[in-house]
TrEMBL record:
Superkingdom: Bacteria
One CC-aspect GO term: cytoplasm
Stretches assigned to coiled coil: none
Protein name as it appears in the record: Chaperone protein HtpG
Functional description taken from the UniProt entry: Molecular chaperone. Has ATPase activity.
Primary location class: cytoplasm
Subcellular location: Cytoplasm
Length: 627
């Protein structure tokens, strides 16, 4: 028997192939099953064009037979088979794809699922096998042949016995090593999982004898094992079925089967696009936040299939970060894959699909907000934070896309409202969109700073998440209305006091406020008359870009060496009784004024939810007032 050498470059390629092309050894099965499916497809195609051939569906299948004793795994198909010459050219030359040639010869374009194109997949078998034996009988040929190889050393081809047309591939599975447990490729359960993962939607049945157990006759305690042949792949992918035949339940089952999440999805989107880039996609908007969603461990992405064969588990490029909650899959026949099928050659098609998906998800969310408010609010409770991050990140590049999906709690409506709803309700004399920040709705409700705005009858949006104010700062305005914190020094509200009166008040108490400012040193930038307070004696407001809430968030960030400081202003309500005490202390007892100033400042901090620098001093000061 003559041993033939692989061509020199093939030898190196084979070594490379075995060791480095694939990151996971288990994909060998995907490659062999895809080849088997291609082989059946070829008979199917021949039958379409040759009147002497009929294609009886039941005769065409793939079978996997693990044998633990002999350490062999056999993959048989009833496909077109290979002649001696084909065994030689297709399996003897690496990077020679008989399938690609077949596709070209027959000018197969649309609708045909031939998967092979590079002529390398077969050799993946050597990642798990020491010896690979291929026995094949070609359609229309009376003689079968056996191709055998131990890898890089070459191969032999001899005549063989085989009754029916098709191919049997026998892998002599490697012995276990310290790093790899090859036994698992002989295990029914593992094999079934690998088939489910990569080849579930191969169009022909993939059969395997599955071990089962049943109660022994007349005994319900003892069980006997038996084997039964089962088809282990689903064959028809849900996304290739006619949409009108798919029920909501089918979509939900698919979500569960694919383990996209443990919840019930809020919405599914089924896309069948037949344009420049053809693809099918089933996308889901989950209801619940995955436990690791807001952590760096969470990986976004959609499953990516090429012709029904899984290429990538999580293709991140298909989703923008702000829609990272979307689950599902995309299947396209138009992808340019690289040899390992683990990466894409060109991302043009992918970019096109990603853009479509982004627009579709956006539109679906907008429709949900419009027509299914309750559902949208559920979604928003889980993923609203992500949308706000989306507005803020990338220097606001996506704010236009996302701004209409934002919602905040409204002081008037006592529920979440959109910015559009807010603006629509704004009275003519209201210049700004007002917001207040705090830990909870209840705390914000009691903030002294909200008094004037609320008194004017203006609606205030309550921000309770750290990202809220940052997102809004990035938006700057909505429908040309600027956002304004109720704590900012200029609220843009005409107070009852005229400007001249305000100035007079400032002047009148100039000395008192200067004195108080000195007591507080650089803790505050200024002490001044408040034109917003009604019932409260003091509050803190800010001047400039950085608000108190932002100061809190920025300083709480890890690795933040430079502490940020908001320019705080202590505002005093000159109509409050306490002010009388301040005035009289200023005239008669400066020590008392020092004490009052510090107390009032600390009170204002507490109301704001800020820590007081020296709690012991604060309680001592309180006691001083009591005695
Ligand atoms: N089970 C089979 N039945 C018939 N022909 C086969 C079978 N397996 C492989 N072949 C032939 O051998 C060729 C080489 O197979 P191989 O898996 O290396 O590459 P491919 O499937 O063409 O491309 P890819 O690397 O993209 O999978 C195939 O193109 C096909 O012509």
């Amino acid at each position: 028997m003559e041993r033939k050498q692989f061509q020199a470059e093939s030898k190196r390629l084979l070594e490379m192939m075995i060791n480095s092309i694939y990151t996971k050894k288990e994909v060998f099965l995907r490659e062999l099953l895809s080849n088997a499916s291609d082989a059946i497809d070829k008979i199917y195609y021949k039958a379409l064009t040759d009147d002497n051939l009929t294609f009886n569906k039941d005769d065409y299948y793939i079978k996997i037979v693990p044998n633990k004793e002999n350490r062999t795994l056999t993959i048989s198909d009833t496909g077109i088979g290979m002649t001696k010459e084909e065994l030689e050219t297709n399996l003897g030359t690496i990077a020679k794809s008989g399938s690609l040639a077949f596709k070209k010869e027959n000018e197969l374009k649309d609708g045909f699922d031939i998967i092979g194109q590079f002529g390398v997949g077969f050799y993946a078998a050597f990642m798990v096998a020491d010896v690979v034996t291929v026995t094949s009988k070609a359609l229309g040929s009376g003689q079968a042949y056996k191709w055998e190889s131990e890898g890089a050393d070459g191969y032999t081809i001899v005549e063989a016995e085989k009754d029916s047309v098709g191919t049997d591939i026998v892998l002599q599975i490697k012995a276990n090593t310290e790093d790899d447990n090859y036994d698992e490729y002989l295990d029914e359960w593992t094999l079934r999982n690998i088939v489910k993962k990569y080849s579930d939607f191969i169009r022909y049945p993939i059969k395997m004898d599955v071990t089962k157990s049943k109660p022994k006759d007349g005994d319900d305690k003892e069980f006997v094992e038996y084997t039964e042949e089962e088809t282990i792949n689903s064959m028809v992918p849900l996304w290739r079925k006619n949409k009108s035949e798919i029920t909501d339940e089918d979509y939900e089952n698919f979500y569960q089967e694919k383990r996209y999440g443990f919840d019930k999805p809020l919405k599914h989107i089924h896309l069948s696009v037949d344009g420049t880039v053809r693809y099918n996609a089933i996308l889901y908007i989950p209801e619940k936040t995955p436990f690791d969603y807001y952590t760096p461990e969470y990986e976004k992405g959609l499953e990516l299939y090429s012709n029904g064969v899984l290429i990538m588990n999580k293709c991140a490029d298909l989703l923008p970060d702000y829609f990272s909650f979307v689950k599902g899959m995309v299947d396209s026949e138009d992808l340019s894959l690289n040899i390992s099928r683990e990466m894409l050659q060109h991302d043009r098609q992918l970019k096109f699909i990603a853009k479509n998906i982004k627009n579709k998800v956006k539109r679906e969310l907008e429709t949900m907000l419009k027509n299914e408010r309750e559902k949208f609010e559920k979604f928003y409770a889980s993923f609203g934070r992500q949308l706000k991050f989306g507005v803020y990140s990338d220097f606001g590049a996506n704010k236009e896309t996302l701004q209409d999906l934002l919602m905040f709690y409204s002081s008037k409506e006592k529920k979440l409202v959109t910015l559009a709803e807010y603006v629509e309700r704004m009275p003519a004399d209201q210049k700004y969109i007002y917001y207040a920040t705090g830990e909870s709705y209840e705390r914000i409700e009691k903030l002294p700073q909200t008094e004037l705005v609320a008194d004017k009858g203006f609606e205030i949006l309550y921000f309770t998440e750290d990202i809220d104010e940052f997102a809004i700062k990035m938006l700057l305005n909505y429908q040309e209305k600027e956002f304004k914190s109720v704590s900012s020094s200029d609220l843009g509200i005409e107070s009852e006091n005229k400007e001249s009166e305000k100035e007079a008040a400032e002047k009148e108490y100039n000395e008192l406020f200067d004195y108080m400012k000195n007591v507080l040193g650089d803790k505050v930038k200024n002490v001044k008359v408040s034109h917003r307070l009604k019932t409260h004696p003091v509050c803190i407001s800010t001047e400039g870009e950085i608000t108190i809430e932002m100061e809190k968030v920025l300083n709480a960030m890890p690795n933040n060496n430079q502490q940020v400081k908001a320019d705080k202003v202590l505002e005093i309500n000159t109509k409050h009784e306490v002010f009388e005490s301040l005035k009289s202390a200023f005239e008669k007892d400066k020590e008392k004024l020092d004490l009052y100033t510090k107390l009032l400042y600390n009170q204002a901090l507490l109301i704001e939810g800020l820590p007081i620098e020296d709690p012991v001093e604060f309680t001592n000061d309180m006691c001083k007032v009591m005695v």
